[in-house]
Amino acid sequence: MSVSAAPHTTSWRLARATAPAVRVLAGRRFFPLWAVVRHRGRVSGRALSVPVAVVATPDVFVINLPWGARTNWVRNVLAAGSCDLRWKGRTEHTDRPRIIDAAAARPYYSRPVWAMARTLFPADAWLLLHRTNP
Fold this sequence. Notes:
Pnp Oxidase, Chain A, single chain
């Protein structure tokens, strides 16, 4: 195994091990680190959802994309130009999705959360979503 493959393998294993708990807890009131992105399939038109790790500010949500910006759910959100996010027990409507890099994502994270995210879920892309709720 090469050194560059190790973080991806580690994050995949961690994601797989924690997926059942994350699916149950994501979007709930007392679990602000996890949210559920609700979107529509580009081709099927079906309502879909995916649990994600999220960092929130009063204006935006930033989602770490350890599997990259080409995953189907990210492409669905970008194509639609909006999605709903179930976060802290509320549904937040978002729009203007945009892929950003590490330099643009870093200011949204505290130092310890950035270190943890970069270690557990290394990524080269993040999804920036603008809140539209008042």
